[in-house]
Design a protein that fits this description.
The chain is mostly helical. It has helices at about 1-5, 10-15, 25-30, 65-70, 120-130, 135-155, 165-185, 210-225, 245-255, 265-280, 285-300, and strands at about 10, 50, 65, 80, 85-90, 95, 100-105.
Length: about 300
């Protein structure tokens, strides 16, 4: 498995860098979701970019965005600033960062334990606030999608894909996430490439959900005076989120809808395989965590009948 994944890793970064920066990939989340409509909602928390430029400048490394923290039920643990060029070396690869910011410590799912979780907020509204005549199944499975996604993430995103150092956040984190997509494509779907280098297994992951319910969950978060910061920012303030309109959220959902696996190329696979070998990453370890996440997702969704 490792040799095959090695033969595949080199070209994937280009694809993901120009699209959403997802936790560990839409294919991984889609396939880890329980069967049924929840599969199509499993990527909802990744509607928002995971990183943002806090200064509006050209930082290469970026802090965890407020919306990512809210949607993934984690708190931002502060950022460290680097003002001088920093050189990072990974195996045969070397990059010089002109100046950046990065999370001081890795974010952690559900920390502190009392932080509100978007999926649970949506489900509570569906259960207790929505009149029976107005209840829809898409609202319920939207809640399950958030819950399943974050439970799966807890097995990998907050343990195996680390932040906390410049190397972890700017080099290993995002490259390992792309590599993970290929591990799932090969190890779970038995994917391969034809003689032209195109994927032989196509999975229409899709993305759907109730934009109105997500908008209401954002309002609940703000109304309850929740914050996305574990420590105050440089101004001494604790940030929250800006509530979006239903139309804005619906547009995000539409932007993530599509057939992702068409973008998994053999050239990209080769590149990231070489990176994985140089960094000492092990596909068997990743897949073990994937199945752990899959089991956690089933438990989380099962709690929302």
């Amino acid at each position: 498995m490792k040799t095959r994944v090695s033969a595949l890793l080199v070209g994937a970064a280009i694809i993901v860098l120009v699209s959403h920066v997802c936790a560990w990939g839409p294919l991984a989340h889609f396939s880890a979701a329980p069967t049924g409509g929840t599969r199509m909602t499993q990527n909802l928390p990744d509607l928002w970019l995971s990183r943002q430029d806090p200064g509006g400048t050209t930082y290469i490394g970026k802090e965890v965005s407020p919306f990512f923290a809210w949607s993934h039920a984690c708190l931002r643990n502060g950022v460290a600033n680097v003002t001088t060029p920093t050189t990072i070396t990974v195996g045969p690869f070397s990059t010089t960062i002109p100046g950046t910011v990065y999370p001081v410590t890795p974010t952690s799912y559900g920390v502190p334990a009392g932080i509100e979780k978007a999926g649970e907020d949506i489900y509570a509204m569906w259960t207790n606030k929505v009149l029976p005549a107005n209840k829809t199944e898409i609202m319920a499975i939207t809640a399950r999608g958030f819950a399943g996604h974050n439970a799966a993430d807890s097995a990998v995103h907050f343990s195996y894909f680390q932040g906390g150092t410049i190397y972890n956040w700017l080099v290993e984190h995002w490259q390992k996430e792309i590599w993970a997509e290929y591990c799932v494509y090969i190890g779970v779907y038995n994917g391969d490439w034809d003689w032209l280098g195109n994927p032989t297994v196509l999975v229409a992951t899709g993305c759907t959900g109730d934009g109105g319910a997500i908008c209401l969950a954002q309002k609940v978060f703000r109304k309850n005076r929740q914050t996305v910061d574990a420590v105050p920012d440089t101004t001494g303030a604790f940030k929250t989120i800006t509530v979006e309109t239903k139309a804005q959220v619906d547009a995000r959902i539409s932007s993530l809808d599509g057939n992702y696996v068409n973008g998994l190329s053999q050239t990209s696979f080769v590149r990231y395989s070489l990176i994985a070998d140089a960094a000492g990453w092990d596909a068997a370890t990743l897949l073990a965590k994937y199945y752990q996440g899959k089991a956690a997702a089933a438990t989380a969704v099962g709690a929302m009948p």
